[in-house]
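I'd like us to work through together how a protein chain folds, taking it slowly. To get us started, please write out a protein record for me. Go ahead whenever you are ready, and we will take it from there:
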Amino acid sequence: MELKTTGVAGTLESSDVMVTLEPAPSGISLDLESTVINQYGRQIRETVLATLARLGVKNAAVTVNDHGALDCTITARVECAYYRGCRCDADGPYPWGGEIA
C-alpha cells in the first residue's frame, strides 16, 4: 500500500500522541515534539521509525506530537495514520491484527 494523502491519528490529550503522515518525494523526515523528549525522545523516534519500516513506508513526512504516550499507543497511532493516508477503504479491507503485506 502507498501513502496517497495525509493521514492523522491520535489526540493532544495527556498520555496520547498525535501522528500525522504526509506523502513525501523521497525518504522519511520526522518532526518530533514531546513533553518527555529529554527522557524518551530516542525511544519515541525508534518506535516510530520501526513501525514505519514494518509497514514498508519509504517516503513520508512524519509529525509526532507526544504527550507521554506508551510505545504501544505510539505504534497504534502510526499504523492508524498510515492506513488513513493510504485510503485503504478504496483498496480493500484493513489488515488489522494480521500479517502486513
In short: The radius of gyration is 13 Å. Residues 7 and 84 are 5 Å apart (CA to CA). The chain has three helices and four strands.
